[in-house]
């Protein structure tokens, strides 16, 4: 009986540790960029460079640094071809997908701000909120709103009626575990815009916790690049380390996982007291980070190391029990 159990566990260990036999979960997050392409993005400049050109450069740098690590999508407001009703988004957005970096860059190149000269933030967020891929049950999704102002007075009744709509769309996304980052670009001393973006950021569930604003402020290219890099580091799983699904908002998609140090952690498998961190009564405690995009056993990763430790503990546990049983019969 003991020999049979030992052979079964040995077989399990081989299946866990032999390189290339098991593919871990793909935890690459969706990031839906919702970008302001209103006329103010080109009519105003910073050190001789338009806000639009700065934003495009910063987003391209973000995608280059995170190629294969994030699934980028893009929605821009207002629609370039909008005529009537000009405040309603009708041009299809680019849904998040792996390898979308060039497609996003092309859309940015081909859609410089122009007519109509409006800022319909509510419709931009509404359109993003209707993208079905954001509600994936096996990966996290995030919305990234980048804007330089507030809602136009001639769209959806202006800020007084449009802002509550925007907040509702963002809240609905959050309730479906899709939080929203809000980046205010070159907002300056525009108190009305600050108030609007603060309310959006709070509803999104991932507000800025440093400084004086709930949104992430950026007043030049360096600050915008730094803000985007920071958000990407919170949103993306550390693929090379197989850390697991990110949870910057403290929530995980799995009902059994807990958010630990920014990543979702599943309970360790029950090895019947033969592995893991054993309490005095022999029960298993502890947890194991779920991996992302790595071969279990073949990557020098947290997930692989965790499985290796559990497997080794299982073997040692069986050997100890076998010795005790032999001693009892001698």
Q: Domain count, please report it.
A: 2
Q: Just give the CATH class of the largest domain.
A: Alpha Beta
Which bin fits the share of residues in helices? 25-40%
CATH homologous superfamily of the largest domain - what is it? von Willebrand factor, type A domain
**Which oligomeric form is depicted?**
single chain
Give the CA-based shape: elongated
Task: Spell the H/E element sequence.
Answer: HEHEEHEEHHEHEHEHEEEEEH
Indicate the topology.
Elements: H1 2-17, E1 29-36, H2 40-43, E2 45-46, E3 49-50, H3 51-65, E4 70-77, E5 94-97, H4 101-110, H5 121-129, E6 141-147, H6 159-175, E7 180-185, H7 191-204, E8 216-218, H8 221-235, E9 258-260, E10 263-267, E11 277-278, E12 284-285, E13 287-289, H9 302-329
Helix pairs in contact: 1-9, 3-4, 3-8, 5-6, 6-7
Question: What features would you describe in this structure?
Answer:
Strand 9 and strand 10 form a beta hairpin. The chain contains nine helices and 13 strands. It is elongated, with a radius of gyration of 25 Å. The protein folds into two domains: about 30-235, Rossmann fold (3-Layer(aba) Sandwich), CATH 3.40.50.410; about 240-330, no CATH class. With about 325 residues, it is α/β, with parallel strands linked by helices. Helix 6 runs parallel beside helix 7 (about 190-205). The strands form four sheets. It has a six-stranded mixed β-sheet with strand order 5-4-1-6-7-8, sandwiched between helices. A three-stranded antiparallel β-sheet has the order 9-10-13. It is about 40% helix and about 15% strand.
């Amino acid at each position: 009986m003991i020999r049979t159990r030992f052979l079964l566990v040995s077989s399990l260990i081989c299946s866990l540790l032999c390189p290339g036999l098991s593919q871990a979960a793909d935890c690459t997050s969706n990031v839906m960029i919702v970008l302001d392409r209103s006329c103010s993005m080109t009519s105003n400049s910073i050190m001789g460079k338009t806000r639009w050109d700065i934003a495009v450069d910063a987003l391209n740098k973000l995608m280059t640094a995170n190629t294969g690590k994030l699934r980028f999508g893009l929605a821009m407001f207002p629609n370039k071809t909008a005529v009537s009703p000009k405040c309603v988004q009708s041009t299809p957005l680019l849904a998040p997908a792996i390898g979308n970096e060039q497609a996003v860059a092309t859309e940015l190149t081909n859609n410089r701000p122009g007519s109509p000269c409006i800022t319909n933030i509510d419709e931009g967020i509404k359109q993003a909120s209707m993208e079905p891929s954001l509600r994936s049950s096996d990966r996290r999704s995030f919305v990234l709103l980048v804007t330089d102002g507030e809602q136009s007075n001639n769209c959806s009744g202006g800020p007084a009626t449009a802002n509550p709509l925007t907040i509702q769309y963002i809240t609905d996304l959050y309730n479906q575990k899709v939080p929203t980052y809000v980046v205010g670009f070159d907002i300056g001393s525009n108190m009305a815009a600050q108030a609007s973006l603060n309310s959006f950021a709070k509803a999104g569930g991932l507000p800025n916790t440093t400084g004086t604003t709930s949104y992430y402020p950026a007043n030049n290219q360096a600050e915008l690049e730094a803000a985007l890099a920071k958000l990407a580091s919170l949103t993306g799983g550390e693929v090379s380390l197989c850390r697991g699904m990110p949870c910057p908002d403290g929530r995980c998609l799995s009902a059994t996982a807990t958010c630990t140090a920014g990543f979702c952690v599943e309970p360790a498998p029950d090895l019947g007291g033969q592995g893991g961190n054993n309490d005095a009564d022999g029960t298993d405690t502890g947890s194991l980070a779920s991996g992302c995009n790595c071969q279990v056993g073949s990557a020098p990763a947290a997930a692989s190391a965790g499985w290796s430790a559990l497997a080794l503990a299982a073997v040692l546990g069986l050997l100890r029990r076998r010795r005790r049983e032999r001693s009892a019969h001698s």
